[in-house]
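Record 1 of the preview.
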Amino acid sequence: MTGSLGTARLSADVIILGGGLVGMTLAIGLAREGVSSVVVDQSDPATQTATGFDGRASAISTASWNLYTNLGMAADLEPRGCPIAAIAVTDAMKPGRIDFRPGGDEGSLGRMFANRDLRLVMYQVAAREQLITFLPNAHVATRHRDAHGVAVTLADSRVLEGRLLVAAEGRRSPTRDEAGFTPARWSYHHRAIIAGLVHERSHDNVAWEIFYPAGPFALLPLLDDEAGRHRSALVWTVAEDDAAGVLALPEAAFLGEVARRMGDLFGTIELASARTSYPLDFHHTAKVVEQRLVLVGDAAHGMHPIAGQGLNLGLRDVAALVEVLAEGMRMGLDPGDAQLLHRYERWRALDSFMVAGATDVLTRLFGIPGRLPSAVRRLGMAGVQRSPALKRFFMDEARGMSGKLPALLQA
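->
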């Protein structure tokens, strides 16, 4: 990475606010195309990559894995990820579940990674890129955009100058809000409880999505730890009013509640990390560009984790934006050119809307309590289970392999 912390002014083609999984991947993709960037992030990389498993994990779809491969990151990531051989979807562990399992020549449905491992590799790859200047532990004081360029002043008075500003700060993006974007938004009045589990029996590389009226209960397969213990990540959705009580339960009681919801799938279970939580809400903006400004990832669309598509949708934003900017700059256009930005916006509009809408519908559909709604859901799931065409459609969607794909998402 280039750039001196003592320099009063830094300049690059693109200024990226937010150095998380989406923002830093964007910087790496741009660097591979010869486009320079400054990445500003409030967090401390040492904290983000601290030793130990904190329970946070992400499903990386086939398309996203193609992106990492094309960016030269796959070799470093491969030994850290757990292939997802199948996805089991069930309504409260009752009969009538769906099993999504690819054919023998189709590979896995994706890979599960602890977020720490994704960050470790991301920082290592970015450090080798001369066109990336990374400014961690940095706070933005002001942002300025006009017809000629963009400028960001940091709290320590450093000034960053570029031709395009990218907001990759996540769901509560101050850059998005300051620019006047008005996303559709609502709260689900639920929280996701996150924890790491170790368990007696192997998960056999199966991801479980178990739906209860209070919300989905997901068990996501991870690689065994150094001691050979089987591991999974738990994402348990509970009502907002119940979350504090669930987090405060003694460990034995908490594990008892988890075991009650998952049955005897994995045998004896233990906690492998502290419990954490975050509120679940929805926001989506069809308009993702302004003068010399682009929104990517959760700054543009935040959704329920019900289908594990949040990060993958952000990585599809990255692939499309890299392609649009690289092609435009090869033709001599400014990266902040309005035509380029609107091309990106049009390309991403339908995909982001469809994925966000589908996750919202699923959340509401499986949240309807009662025996009759459960019976109807299970009847529909049994129909999907018997239809190879429908199962293939849903698997292609989960892999991110439908629609017009940017080159970086293709094998």
